[in-house]
Amino acid sequence: MEPTQHPTTGTRLDPWVDAYAARTRGLTASQVRALFAVASRPEVVSLAGGMPFVSALPLDQIADMTARLIRERGPQALQYGSGQGDVTLREQILEVMAPVGVSAHPDDIVVTAGSQMALDLVVRVFCDPGDVVLVEAPTYVTALGVFSAYQCEVVHVPMDEQGMRPDALREAIAHVAAQGKRAKLVYTIPSFHNPAGVTQGPQRRLEVLEAARSHGLLLLEDDPYGLLGFDGTVPRAIRADEAEGVVYLGTFSKTIAAGLRVGWAVAPHGVREKLVLANETATLCPSNFAQLTISEYLATQPWFDQVKVFREVYRERRDALLESLEALMPPGTHWTVPGGGFYSWVTLPQGLDATAMLPRAVAALVAYVPGTGFFSDGQGRQSLRLSYCYPEPDRIREGVRRLAGVIETEVELAATFGSPVAHAHRDGPSTPTPDLA
Amino acid sequence: MTHEIGGRVVVLAGGLSPERDVSVRSGRRMAEALRATGLSVDVLDVDATLLPSLAADRPACVVPLLHGAAGEDGAVRGVLDALGLPYVGSDPVACRAAFDKPVASARVGAAGVAVPASYVLAATTFRELGAHAVLDAVRSSLGLPLMVKPTKGGSALGASVVRTEDEFPAAMMAAFAYGDTAVVERFVEGTEVAVSVVDEGDGPRALPVVEIVPDGGFYDYSARYTAGETEFFVPARLDPAVLEACAAAAVTVHDVLGLRDWSRSDLIVDAEGTPWFLEVNVAPGMTETSIFPQAVAASGQQISDVVLRLVERAIAR
């Protein structure tokens, strides 16, 4: 042993620990996230990730097209661009939005680094710490991350098979007002919801819009999956019927390539001006190279035919998932039937905890995202999200077979122990990293 | 400085265990440390490409930094033995004993180190005898608070402190999510310390005792791997005699389990100054927040020098 002298202060191995902003609370290592590291191994059937199946793209044509872009327009593609985004691309985005019924002027559009950046900018522009954002229960996990980063208070609004319930939304707005708090935004994913897999019908959309509008709240419509309906119909966007009270978020991540990180916002004049300035502050400008690549793709490739290819790929996988769930899931398990998009929301038999069950699932070589990740308030323990977009149908069937076995074991265990009160984990993120999400 | 050892070093990291992420980070840091000595180092995962890679370019030495099953239960090391490849760390027999917490506790206890009273319970036991009857019997015997953890595995995955009766069933289920058997042991209140042991050929030697003070009171996964969530004191703020006792306990653990090269024992020191053995690691973590590198630094050595000597020792075995 070395001679000892008691240290008066210890080390925390991070000299900046006392300097971090309060909003970083919760950015910690997490057991669940550790399990997702295993899910990246090929032995594991990952029904967790929401990665688009980009292998279905015409990669050779994209390679040729990209090479041509650099050869012919390299100095432009590799230079800074406008904070609002490339004007040609903004004109093309109008064509992309035509099927969902959104008509606008190219100047109404702000191109961003994925629609995630657009979401961030909208919240940055509107929300002070403590402002309330009303969201679906459950909602997109990384939207929750944005709301948390800007120290918003999140209020979850119950859903039914048609998405956010307008009566519950009105009730929640009234409750927030009665508490003396200020609501700023209603955030909704009306088509092929992530994670719930449900879609608002036309009437429901109008009712949700009316509930927000009548209380002077901006509606933030996130529409990444709108073109990916399996029956070929495209739900009409809420923004198609209301230009002033809605900011519409779109993305090429699901219809072309997530890796290019190109999304956009369509916003009323005043909001758009602020978004452009905020975009310049955040990133100077969206990537010119990525924008011109998308623009070239839209100009030279049959992009809507490719959307149809994606629809067919995802429909086949959705069917594989639903057939397997129907055949294999233990009694008491329920799931949503998505008409498009990437996800089904599964509710486990009474007493089961999807977060606590995840280690057993990963040991059985299948992964999912526990429901708690989609709530800001600890709800969702009995639920999980299954994603069918990335694995091949046979792998999906195998994954569901494994998951069914895990649930059966968990049902036995829960029957043995009753339905114990879950331990309150003070744990960090419970969702995969972006390359798995 | 460049060292010549007759080939590359392969650091094994990753694997399929829930501690994969920790292992990958440990592996990267270890590779950096070894490269700093001038060695050629590759970090390889344990998958179907591993054995062809080892055959195509036979390494001079392997450093297994796999955490959790297959890494710490000796299985992969058995394969390395079969291939005749030298490696740093304990052999499969010792790994199996160390990785199985009840087996390790029994041997360490028999060697005179204090171990908390405990029971090993299988999920089937609860099914057959009735959960509440078993839980009642265990609680009556050990009292509260209790520590519940899987019999195998590390990083506090599946481990919980049970302070009230209501928390007991959920803690059992959390542990069973990581394996079919769990240890329930009396929770010893006190100062949490970890003692790293290194044997560079002149017998096992304890490095300075590291005291662990997690913000939340429990050294769980988040506290282990989020920089800033835990305060470490090196050496631990304990009387010299208690520090000596901790060091002696860790060396005893290393000896009695037949461990080789390096280990890290986790102990709790109670109010009377008695160190209680909790568990031992045969592949100590090497991440930015891990204890072994802190202990090496506190001993005035460079981690790269220590590991280089262990690599040379493994090759010479």
Provide a concise account of the structure shown.
The complex is a heterodimer of chains A (437) and B (317). By secondary structure, chain A is an alpha/beta fold. Helix content of chain A is 41%, strand content 14%.
Please describe what this structure looks like.
The complex is a heterodimer of chains A (437) and B (317). In chain A, helix 1 packs parallel to helix 12 (354-363) and helix 2 (59-77) packs across helix 10. Chain A is built from 13 helices and 14 strands. Chain A folds into two domains: 22-56 and 306-417, Aspartate Aminotransferase, domain 1 (Alpha-Beta Complex), CATH 3.90.1150; 76-300, Aspartate Aminotransferase, domain 2, CATH 3.40.640.10. Chain A has helices spanning 31-39, 59-77, 87-97, 114-126, 141-149, 166-178, 202-214, 253-257, 269-283, 288-300, 303-328, 354-363, 393-417; strands at 45-46, 109-112, 132-137, 153-160, 163-164, 183-188, 218-222, 246-251, 263-266, 334-335, 343-347, 366-367, 369-370, 383-387. By secondary structure, chain A is an alpha/beta fold. The longest helix of chain A has 26 residues, at 303-328. With 317 residues, chain B is α+β, with helices and mostly antiparallel strands. Chain B folds into three domains: 9-88, Rossmann fold (3-Layer(aba) Sandwich); 96-115 and 189-316, D-amino Acid Aminotransferase, Chain A, domain 1, CATH 3.30.470.20; 118-186, Dna Ligase, domain 1. Chain B has twelve helices and 13 strands. In chain B, the strands form three sheets. In chain B, strands 8, 9, 10, 11, 12 and 13 form a six-stranded antiparallel beta sheet that branches. In chain B, strand 12 (262-269) and strand 13 (275-281) form a beta hairpin. Chain B is globular, with a radius of gyration of 19 Å. The model of chain B has no long low-confidence stretch (mean pLDDT 93). At the A-B interface, helix 1, helix 12 and helix 13 of A face helix 1, helix 6, helix 8, helix 9 and strand 11 of B.
